[in-house]
Design brief:
CATH class: Alpha Beta
Number of helices: 10
Number of strands: 8
Distance between the termini: 33 Å
Largest sheet: 8 strands, mixed
Helix content: 25-40%
Radius of gyration: 17 Å
Low-confidence stretches: none
Shape: globular
Strand content: 15-25%
Strand order of the largest sheet: 3-4-2-5-1-6-7-8
CATH topology: Rossmann fold
Protein backbone atom coordinates (compact mmCIF):
# COMPACT_ATOMS: atom_id res chain seq x y z
CA UNK A 1 0.00 0.00 0.00
CA UNK A 2 1.32 3.45 -0.93
CA UNK A 3 0.56 4.90 2.46
CA UNK A 4 3.58 7.14 3.16
CA UNK A 5 3.02 10.72 2.04
CA UNK A 6 5.48 13.60 2.28
CA UNK A 7 4.15 17.15 2.33
CA UNK A 8 6.64 19.67 0.97
CA UNK A 9 6.84 23.31 -0.02
CA UNK A 10 9.40 25.36 -1.86
CA UNK A 11 9.19 28.27 0.58
CA UNK A 12 8.15 28.85 4.16
CA UNK A 13 4.81 30.30 5.14
CA UNK A 14 2.58 28.29 2.82
CA UNK A 15 0.76 26.65 5.74
CA UNK A 16 2.12 23.19 5.04
CA UNK A 17 1.91 21.99 8.64
CA UNK A 18 -1.71 23.10 8.89
CA UNK A 19 -2.44 21.11 5.73
CA UNK A 20 -0.70 18.03 7.19
CA UNK A 21 -2.78 18.15 10.35
CA UNK A 22 -6.03 18.96 8.54
CA UNK A 23 -5.51 16.04 6.17
CA UNK A 24 -4.58 13.68 9.01
CA UNK A 25 -7.73 14.61 10.95
CA UNK A 26 -9.87 14.06 7.85
CA UNK A 27 -8.36 10.60 7.28
CA UNK A 28 -8.95 9.62 10.90
CA UNK A 29 -12.58 10.68 10.49
CA UNK A 30 -12.70 8.12 7.68
CA UNK A 31 -11.62 5.45 10.19
CA UNK A 32 -7.96 5.52 9.20
CA UNK A 33 -5.12 5.21 11.68
CA UNK A 34 -2.65 8.01 10.93
CA UNK A 35 0.88 8.78 12.09
CA UNK A 36 2.25 12.30 11.57
CA UNK A 37 6.04 12.61 11.55
CA UNK A 38 7.49 16.06 11.99
CA UNK A 39 10.79 16.34 10.10
CA UNK A 40 11.34 20.05 10.65
CA UNK A 41 14.35 19.75 12.98
CA UNK A 42 14.72 22.80 15.21
CA UNK A 43 11.34 24.25 14.16
CA UNK A 44 8.82 21.59 15.14
CA UNK A 45 5.22 22.66 15.57
CA UNK A 46 2.92 19.67 15.10
CA UNK A 47 3.12 18.89 18.83
CA UNK A 48 1.45 22.25 19.53
CA UNK A 49 -1.28 21.64 16.95
CA UNK A 50 -2.07 18.23 18.45
CA UNK A 51 -1.85 19.51 22.05
CA UNK A 52 0.87 17.09 23.11
CA UNK A 53 3.65 19.63 23.59
CA UNK A 54 4.04 18.90 27.32
CA UNK A 55 4.11 15.14 26.79
CA UNK A 56 7.06 14.89 24.39
CA UNK A 57 9.98 13.08 26.01
CA UNK A 58 11.43 11.42 22.92
CA UNK A 59 11.58 12.49 19.29
CA UNK A 60 12.51 10.81 16.01
CA UNK A 61 16.23 11.32 16.62
CA UNK A 62 15.92 9.43 19.92
CA UNK A 63 14.16 6.60 18.08
CA UNK A 64 17.02 6.14 15.60
CA UNK A 65 19.87 6.70 18.06
CA UNK A 66 18.71 3.98 20.44
CA UNK A 67 17.67 6.32 23.25
CA UNK A 68 14.22 4.74 23.05
CA UNK A 69 12.22 2.23 21.06
CA UNK A 70 10.49 3.79 18.01
CA UNK A 71 7.07 3.15 19.58
CA UNK A 72 8.10 5.13 22.67
CA UNK A 73 8.58 8.24 20.50
CA UNK A 74 5.00 8.05 19.18
CA UNK A 75 2.38 10.11 21.02
CA UNK A 76 -1.39 9.94 20.69
CA UNK A 77 -3.36 13.11 20.06
CA UNK A 78 -5.37 14.12 23.11
CA UNK A 79 -8.26 15.17 20.93
CA UNK A 80 -8.68 12.30 18.51
CA UNK A 81 -8.32 8.55 18.75
CA UNK A 82 -6.40 7.15 15.79
CA UNK A 83 -4.13 10.18 15.33
CA UNK A 84 -0.49 9.91 16.41
CA UNK A 85 2.65 12.04 16.28
CA UNK A 86 6.39 11.50 16.20
CA UNK A 87 7.99 14.87 16.90
CA UNK A 88 11.07 16.42 15.32
CA UNK A 89 14.07 17.18 17.51
CA UNK A 90 14.52 20.72 18.78
CA UNK A 91 18.22 20.61 17.94
CA UNK A 92 19.18 20.87 14.26
CA UNK A 93 22.37 18.95 15.09
CA UNK A 94 20.19 15.85 15.46
CA UNK A 95 19.08 15.83 11.83
CA UNK A 96 18.58 12.29 10.52
CA UNK A 97 20.09 10.88 7.32
CA UNK A 98 17.75 9.69 4.53
CA UNK A 99 18.83 6.04 4.84
CA UNK A 100 18.30 5.93 8.59
CA UNK A 101 14.94 7.68 8.28
CA UNK A 102 13.84 5.15 5.67
CA UNK A 103 14.61 2.35 8.13
CA UNK A 104 12.59 4.09 10.84
CA UNK A 105 9.54 4.62 8.63
CA UNK A 106 9.78 1.05 7.35
CA UNK A 107 9.55 -0.18 10.93
CA UNK A 108 6.53 2.01 11.70
CA UNK A 109 4.43 2.09 8.55
CA UNK A 110 2.66 -1.25 8.88
CA UNK A 111 1.03 -0.08 12.12
CA UNK A 112 -0.84 2.72 10.35
CA UNK A 113 -3.10 3.23 7.37
CA UNK A 114 -1.22 6.45 6.55
CA UNK A 115 2.08 8.03 7.53
CA UNK A 116 2.21 11.75 6.72
CA UNK A 117 5.65 13.36 6.86
CA UNK A 118 5.87 17.12 7.35
CA UNK A 119 9.01 18.19 5.51
CA UNK A 120 10.88 21.39 6.28
CA UNK A 121 10.37 24.07 3.63
CA UNK A 122 12.88 24.33 0.81
CA UNK A 123 15.36 21.94 -0.76
CA UNK A 124 17.81 21.39 2.06
CA UNK A 125 19.00 18.13 3.59
CA UNK A 126 15.89 17.95 5.77
CA UNK A 127 13.72 17.79 2.68
CA UNK A 128 15.81 14.97 1.21
CA UNK A 129 15.42 13.01 4.44
CA UNK A 130 11.66 13.58 4.65
CA UNK A 131 11.09 12.60 1.03
CA UNK A 132 13.27 9.48 1.05
CA UNK A 133 10.69 6.94 2.34
CA UNK A 134 7.65 8.53 0.66
CA UNK A 135 5.41 6.67 -1.78
CA UNK A 136 3.57 9.88 -2.68
CA UNK A 137 4.11 13.60 -2.36
CA UNK A 138 1.92 16.62 -1.84
CA UNK A 139 3.30 20.04 -2.69
CA UNK A 140 1.69 22.84 -0.69
CA UNK A 141 1.77 26.28 -2.29
CA UNK A 142 -0.05 29.58 -2.39
CA UNK A 143 -1.49 31.12 -5.55
CA UNK A 144 1.39 33.53 -6.09
CA UNK A 145 4.50 33.50 -8.30
CA UNK A 146 7.05 33.02 -5.51
CA UNK A 147 5.13 30.08 -4.07
CA UNK A 148 4.73 28.44 -7.48
CA UNK A 149 8.39 28.93 -8.34
CA UNK A 150 9.23 27.05 -5.16
CA UNK A 151 6.64 24.39 -6.00
CA UNK A 152 8.26 23.80 -9.37
CA UNK A 153 11.68 23.39 -7.77
CA UNK A 154 10.26 20.92 -5.28
CA UNK A 155 8.55 19.00 -8.07
CA UNK A 156 11.78 18.81 -10.07
CA UNK A 157 13.69 17.51 -7.05
CA UNK A 158 11.00 14.95 -6.21
CA UNK A 159 11.21 13.58 -9.73
CA UNK A 160 15.00 13.36 -9.40
CA UNK A 161 14.37 11.28 -6.26
CA UNK A 162 12.07 8.98 -8.29
CA UNK A 163 8.92 10.28 -6.61
CA UNK A 164 6.47 10.49 -9.48
CA UNK A 165 3.11 10.36 -7.66
CA UNK A 166 2.86 14.08 -6.94
CA UNK A 167 -0.17 16.26 -6.25
CA UNK A 168 -0.55 19.92 -5.32
CA UNK A 169 -2.66 21.71 -2.73
CA UNK A 170 -3.22 25.43 -3.08
CA UNK A 171 -3.52 26.76 0.45
CA UNK A 172 -4.83 30.02 1.94
CA UNK A 173 -6.75 30.97 -1.18
CA UNK A 174 -8.76 34.20 -1.11
CA UNK A 175 -10.56 35.17 -4.31
CA UNK A 176 -10.50 38.90 -3.62
CA UNK A 177 -6.81 38.96 -2.79
CA UNK A 178 -6.08 36.74 -5.79
CA UNK A 179 -7.79 39.19 -8.13
CA UNK A 180 -6.10 42.19 -6.52
CA UNK A 181 -2.72 40.51 -6.92
CA UNK A 182 -3.41 40.19 -10.63
CA UNK A 183 -0.62 37.74 -11.43
CA UNK A 184 -2.84 35.05 -12.96
CA UNK A 185 -6.05 35.19 -15.00
CA UNK A 186 -7.68 32.34 -13.10
CA UNK A 187 -7.01 29.20 -11.07
CA UNK A 188 -6.46 27.12 -14.19
CA UNK A 189 -3.46 29.29 -14.97
CA UNK A 190 -2.15 28.75 -11.43
CA UNK A 191 -2.48 24.98 -11.82
CA UNK A 192 -0.73 25.12 -15.19
CA UNK A 193 2.09 27.16 -13.64
CA UNK A 194 2.53 24.50 -10.96
CA UNK A 195 2.64 21.69 -13.56
CA UNK A 196 1.08 19.39 -10.98
CA UNK A 197 -2.29 17.70 -10.56
CA UNK A 198 -4.49 19.56 -8.08
CA UNK A 199 -5.57 17.62 -4.98
CA UNK A 200 -7.42 20.45 -3.30
CA UNK A 201 -7.97 24.14 -2.72
CA UNK A 202 -7.99 25.37 0.88
CA UNK A 203 -9.54 28.76 1.70
CA UNK A 204 -7.80 31.43 3.72
CA UNK A 205 -9.75 31.10 6.97
CA UNK A 206 -8.49 32.49 10.29
CA UNK A 207 -10.82 30.11 12.14
CA UNK A 208 -8.87 27.18 10.72
CA UNK A 209 -5.56 28.73 11.77
CA UNK A 210 -6.96 29.38 15.25
CA UNK A 211 -7.98 25.74 15.67
CA UNK A 212 -4.48 24.58 14.77
CA UNK A 213 -2.52 27.13 16.80
CA UNK A 214 -4.63 26.54 19.90
CA UNK A 215 -4.03 22.80 19.83
CA UNK A 216 -7.63 21.99 18.97
CA UNK A 217 -7.09 19.93 15.81
CA UNK A 218 -9.64 17.12 15.82
CA UNK A 219 -11.60 18.77 18.63
CA UNK A 220 -12.99 21.98 17.14
CA UNK A 221 -14.50 22.36 13.68
CA UNK A 222 -15.12 25.14 11.17
CA UNK A 223 -16.75 25.08 7.71
CA UNK A 224 -13.35 25.27 5.99
CA UNK A 225 -12.41 21.95 7.58
CA UNK A 226 -14.65 20.18 5.09
CA UNK A 227 -12.13 20.79 2.30
CA UNK A 228 -9.78 18.32 3.98
CA UNK A 229 -12.52 15.69 4.04
CA UNK A 230 -12.74 16.08 0.27
CA UNK A 231 -8.94 15.95 -0.19
CA UNK A 232 -8.75 12.81 1.95
CA UNK A 233 -11.38 11.11 -0.17
CA UNK A 234 -9.52 12.09 -3.33
CA UNK A 235 -6.32 10.60 -1.89
CA UNK A 236 -8.29 7.42 -1.24
CA UNK A 237 -9.02 7.29 -4.97
CA UNK A 238 -12.59 8.57 -4.94
CA UNK A 239 -13.72 10.81 -7.77
CA UNK A 240 -15.17 13.73 -5.87
CA UNK A 241 -15.31 17.42 -6.85
CA UNK A 242 -13.36 20.08 -5.03
CA UNK A 243 -15.16 21.07 -1.84
CA UNK A 244 -14.05 24.68 -2.34
CA UNK A 245 -13.63 26.23 -5.78
CA UNK A 246 -12.71 29.75 -4.80
Amino acid sequence: MNNVIVAASGKGGTGKSTVCVGLAVALVKQNKRVLLIDCDCGMRGLDIMLDVEEEILFDCSDAVSGNCKPADAVYRSRNMDGLYLMAAPFDTDNEISPSVFCQLVSELRDNYDYVIIDSPAGLGSGFSTAAAPADRAIIVTNAEPTGLRGALKIRRRLLELDKSDIQMIINRFDRQQFELLGCYRDLDEVIDAGCTRLAGLVPNDMRLSSIMQNGCAGLNWCPSSTVFDCIARRLEGERVPLAFKG
